[in-house]
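Following up on my earlier thread - several people asked me to post the actual chain instead of describing it. Fair enough. Here it is, all 107 residues.
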Amino acid sequence: MSKQEILSWTSLGFSLSVVFFYVMFVFGWPDTIPDYSDRFVKIFFNVFWVAVIVEFIIDLTESKNQVNKDERDEKIEAIGHKRAYPYLSYRCYSVPGVTLQSYWHGR
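Reply from S.P.:
Thanks for posting it. Predicted structure:
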């Protein structure tokens, strides 16, 4: 695997861990699901620390004079940004709209 792929996977693991802990802290464990929260906390805590350690190791071993991205990586990133920006913009603009709509309808 290339360094970019490793960083992408570790970033995904880190993000999922943070989202899991945020959801658990804010909403708690649902009553309809058997309580496996201890196991999930252990799993996501381990994923979090493994991701941090892997990213740290890659950062230490990475040569500062070496080029990490080529034109193909730049093109892939540009396509991702092209698709993600309108989606994110739509979501950011829709939140106030939904909030106002729920206020007007009294829910």
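Helices lie at 3-27, 37-61, 71-104. That should answer part of your original question.
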